[in-house]
Design brief:
alpha+beta, flat, 3 helices, 15% strand, two-stranded parallel ribbon, P-loop_NTPase, CLP1_P, polynucleotide 5'-hydroxyl-kinase activity
Length: 160
């Protein structure tokens, strides 16, 4: 068995996809009568195995003393998790930036060759080739913001 935690404020449709994807048989709904009613309605007519529904939706009351998190608190907790990811829980990671003059490097783009689906025989799917093509990057450098880059020491394009 496994426990699958749903996203924050899920819709019944998202939960239905998660239930079907992971083949979940018991769904616990914590303190949300509307969501419980929607999911119970979706799975009211589902098949039964030895008298037990294949998907059982169970409502659970919220424990006393539990306070709903505000949007501000959730943003804070998310930022804390991101900081923990980059700096470590014990702050033992030390990420840093290296500034490089663009005149000192040559930017290249690595692509795989694929055939368009319209060029393939009927019913055949396009498959990625293992052949790589290395080309000089000719786009705007600002396009590389939030992109994944790699540093390679190579004397020629063939060495990349």
């Amino acid at each position: 068995g496994m426990v699958v935690n749903a996203p924050y404020q899920p819709t019944p449709d998202i939960l239905q996809k998660i239930i079907e994807m992971f083949e979940i048989d018991i769904v616990f709904i914590l303190d949300n009568e509307g969501l419980h009613a929607a999911l119970s309605g979706m799975y009211a007519g589902c098949e039964r195995i030895q008298g037990v529904p294949k998907v059982e939706v169970v409502p659970l009351p919220k424990a006393g003393g539990v306070v709903q998190s505000t949007a501000k608190r959730l943003r804070y907790l998310r930022a804390l998790r991101v900081r923990d990811y980059f700096y470590g829980v014990m702050r033992d990671f030390h990420p840093f930036s290296v500034l490089v003059d663009l005149a000192d490097v040559q930017l290249v783009q690595i692509e795989t060759a694929t055939l368009s689906a319209s060029m393939l025989p009927l019913g055949q799917e396009s498959q990625k080739s293992v052949d790589f093509v290395v080309r000089p990057f000719s786009g705007n450098v600002q396009q590389l913001e939030n992109a994944i880059l790699a540093c390679v020491r190579a004397n020629t394009m063939n060495e990349v």
